[in-house]
Design a protein that fits this description.
By secondary structure, the protein is α/β, with parallel strands linked by helices. The chain has one domain (about 5-180): TIM Barrel. It is built from nine helices and ten strands. An eight-stranded mixed sheet has the order 2-3-5-6-7-8-9-10. Strands 1-4 form a two-stranded antiparallel ribbon. Helix 2 packs across helix 3 (about 110-115).
């Protein structure tokens, strides 16, 4: 039977929870989240490093992160059968499912099996945009929240910004682009990517990097002006204001 590898919550159980979407075009909508483990990138400011920065990984030291924390893999990953995952999702009683990570599309074969069991769900997938979903997943997806990683993430551009992937998402009307920015130089990089890959401005969001309300609000002041200048949209991080930087929220 197919299985998925999930991140864990603070109690060591699978990180499957009901909340409101905190980011992007669906912000404020009630939904169920499932957070999958593992990622193919390593953002220095990542707020879910417990999904990928594990003790004993082949890289020594592990891939860089500003907090320099490393996590025990056994304590931060749990593998469940698809039927179990589907039952836990349905138990939350929501009809919108947000699949996040890590990078959830790394587990596409098992993900396709999960979505077959949840045919009535409205499905959003949050992805870093380095890959596209195979047909068995794509057929079930209502919305892609694509978050390409800029230079300040610490990822090499040839790994994080793959032209054919960006162009594929640019012509998919289900795809919205959410760029994490911390400076005006980041916005300039976004503008260059939008031009180079014909990303529709109406589907481009600037979102402040930060894990506390004060940082987010301060950055949103100048991001507002950047949105006015470039015609982009702005995304807040509602879950940070409501719950702080915590798991399962």
């Amino acid at each position: 039977m197919a299985q998925l590898t999930l991140a864990t919550d603070d109690d060591g159980g699978p990180e499957i929870f009901a909340s409101v979407q905190g980011e992007g075009p669906s912000a404020g909508m009630p939904c169920t989240f499932i957070r999958l483990s593992r990622c193919n990138l390593a953002c220095v400011w990542c707020d879910t490093a417990y999904t990928w920065r594990f003790k004993g990984d082949a890289q020594n030291p592990p891939r860089p992160h500003r907090d320099d924390a490393v996590f025990d893999r056994k304590a931060n990953q749990v593998t469940l059968d698809i039927a179990d995952v589907a039952a836990r999702i349905e138990a939350h009683g929501q009809n919108r499912l947000i699949i996040t990570g890590g990078e959830p599309l790394l587990q596409s074969p098992a993900l396709a099996e999960l979505l077959k069991q949840l045919p009535d769900m409205t499905v959003e997938i949050e992805t870093n945009g380095t890959t596209t979903a195979p047909g068995g997943v794509d057929i079930w997806v209502d919305q892609y929240n694509v978050s390409p990683k800029l230079a300040h993430s610490g990822n090499a551009a040839d790994l994080a910004l793959i032209p054919e992937r960006l162009r594929s998402y640019s012509i998919d009307k289900r795809a919205f682009f959410k760029f994490v920015v911390a400076s005006e130089a980041d916005v300039d990089e976004v503008a260059d990517l939008v031009r180079a890959h014909a990303l529709p401005k109406a589907r481009v969001f600037l979102m402040p990097e930060g894990t506390d309300s004060e940082t987010l609000r301060t950055r949103e002041q100048w991001i507002t002006q950047s949105c006015l200048k470039h015609g982009f949209r702005m995304s807040d991080r509602l879950h940070i204001h409501l719950f702080g930087d915590t798991r399962g929220t």
